[in-house]
Specification:
alpha+beta; Glutaredoxin; 4 helices; 4 strands; Lipoprotein
Length: 122
C-alpha cells in the first residue's frame, strides 16, 4: 500500500511541475497592461519574411489606431525554452497574448488578421 501511495505522490509532483513550466512560459509572454496585446511569431530556423513582418507591423499600427497597444516578438521554438513542448506551437504559428494569457492562436497570418479585425470592431 505504501508503495502505491509513494508512486502516486511522485506522479502528482511530476505532473504538477510540468503544468507549472507551461504556465510560467505563458506568464512570461503575457502583457502587463489590461488592454495590451503581445503578438508572438514562433519559428524553427529562420525568422519570418519581410512581407510577413510588415503584415504584423501593419496589425500593430491598426491596433494602435484603435487605442489598443501591441508589441511583436519573434521566438525560436527550441532556443532557451522548448516552446513546442511547453505551448504546443509549430513553425510559423502566431500566438497573441493579453494580460490573462493566450487570446488568439493562428497558423495563418490572414486568419489572425480576421481575428484582430473582430477584436477592434464594437
Amino acid at each position: 500500500m505504501r508503495k502505491w501511495l509513494g508512486t502516486l505522490f511522485v506522479f502528482l509532483i511530476v505532473a504538477g511541475c510540468g503544468a507549472g513550466s507551461s504556465q510560467r512560459a505563458i506568464q512570461e509572454l503575457t502583457s502587463t497592461m489590461e488592454h495590451e496585446l503581445h503578438i508572438v511569431y514562433f519559428y524553427e530556423q529562420e525568422r519570418p519574411t519581410e512581407k510577413l513582418e510588415a503584415q504584423l507591423t501593419g496589425m500593430k499600427v491598426f491596433l494602435a489606431r484603435k487605442n489598443i497597444p501591441a508589441s511583436i516578438s519573434y521566438r525560436k521554438i527550441k532556443a532557451d525554452k522548448d516552446y513546442e513542448e511547453l505551448l504546443g506551437v509549430k513553425d510559423g504559428q502566431i500566438l497573441v497574448f493579453d494580460y490573462k494569457g493566450i487570446r488568439f492562436n493562428a497558423r495563418n497570418i490572414h486568419v489572425l488578421e480576421g481575428m484582430i479585425l473582430q477584436l477592434s470592431n464594437p
